[in-house]
Design brief:
Low-confidence stretches: none
Order of helices and strands: EHEEHEEEEHEHEHEHEHEHEHHEH
Strand order of the largest sheet: 7-8-9-10-11-12-13-14
Helix content: 25-40%
Bound molecules: phosphoenolpyruvate, manganese (II) ion
Structural class: alpha/beta
Shape: elongated
Radius of gyration: 21 Å
Mean pLDDT: 95
Number of helices: 11
């Protein structure tokens, strides 16, 4: 993105020479530096016309802010990630959070097995759709209100929080009665009425990426929610559509560090929908954590062959527990827990 107005916040404690070197590097990159603030011993340089990719090469830079973001409420404002707390579970802190459960809530027994496995795998949130946004109107659409109730009961039995999708603005109040976090799905990422509606209530929101949305479009969707009053938003990468049918979607893990530069919102990754191939979900979960994801979302089913939706990508409870163990190892390796 050439020509952006960027704010390069320098590391604390730089001497005059180091600051001058940073300004020189900005000039060499073809941009115009202006010394901005001195907060304590910290200096920032406004650089108009600097390419973002060159910003990282300027010596002494701690982090880069967008000087004139189109999404001022969700744009990064300083160092660090916003911590979004879902029923006492912090997302965006040092601990990587696992959200797991079935694609759709089908019946109590199915949910019970998923919830137990989720807990055993180290999950803090139980996922599951009561209202399903299916591609075909003839596919299972979810249990609706009954599904919400079953989800709440299973989560309570296993001390889990509930994240579930809300499909339209008129159902926000109902879903918020049962859920601790409201999911806006890929197919609804640009439904501005729904974005405003989840923004007017206080439950945290999991905003999935539209299947062909750019990072800017996604952040602008988050801006709708924040502008309506709710800044407790977690972004969830779930794959984008490309040319290759070998996978359901192309899981864009580069989105994690790219978003990290642009926003302070926590970032989740859903490798289940992102790849849609059971054998690839474990490795891509590890890769997501290595890339810096704050949370991961995984679908499971006690008997994937009979699942009413997305059975082909569902992990068995046993596989989920195994992934949970791997997740802990990778999280530790990248300085998380
Ligand atoms: C889901 O998580 O249940 C779902 C439908 O995912 P997506 O919106 O990413 O397709
Ligand atoms: Mn699904």
């Amino acid at each position: 993105m050439p020509g952006a107005r960027l704010i390069l916040v320098l590391s604390p404690g730089l001497d005059a020479e180091a600051i001058a070197r940073a300004e020189q590097a900005v000039r060499r990159a073809g941009a115009d530096p202006r010394r901005l603030v001195a907060e304590g011993d910290r200096v920032a340089i406004e650089a108009s016309g600097l390419d973002r990719t060159h910003a990282a090469d300027v010596p002494g830079v701690a982090y880069v802010l967008d000087g004139s973001p189109r999404y001022p409420r969700v744009a990064r404002k300083g160092e660090g990630t916003r911590v979004v707390t879902v029923r006492g579970v912090p997302i965006g802190g040092p601990r990587v959070v696992l959200m797991a459960g079935p694609c759709a809530v089908e019946h109590e027994g199915q949910l019970e097995e998923c919830a137990r496995a989720a807990r055993e795998a180290g999950a803090d949130l139980l996922r599951g759709g009561a209202f399903k946004p299916r591609t075909s109107p003839y596919s299972f659409q979810g249990l609706g209100d009954d599904g919400l109730r079953l989800l709440r009961e299973a989560a309570d039995r296993h001390h889990l929080a509930v994240v579930t999708e809300v499909l339209d603005a008129s159902a926000v109040g109902l879903v918020a009665e049962y859920a601790d976090m409201l999911q806006v799905g890929s197919r609804n990422m640009q439904n501005s009425a729904l974005l405003r509606a989840v923004g007017r209530q206080s439950r945290p929101v999991l905003l999935k990426r539209g299947m062909s949305a750019t990072l800017d479009e996604w952040l602008l969707a988050a801006e709708y929610i924040a502008d309506a009053g709710n800044e407790d938003i977690v972004l969830c990468e779930r794959g984008v559509r490309t040319f290759d049918p070998a996978s359901r979607n192309l899981l864009d893990l580069a989105a994690v560090p790219l978003l990290r530069d642009r926003t302070h919102l926590p970032i989740a990754v859903d490798p289940s929908h992102g790849v849609g191939v059971r054998s690839a979900i474990g490795p891509m979960t590890m890769a997501a954590v290595a890339a810096g994801a704050d949370a991961v979302m995984i679908e499971c089913h006690p008997d994937p062959g009979t699942a009413k939706s997305d059975g082909f990508q569902a992990l068995t409870p046993k596989e989920l527990v195994r992934i949970g163990a791997g997740l802990r190892a990778v999280a530790t390796a990248v300085g998380r827990s």
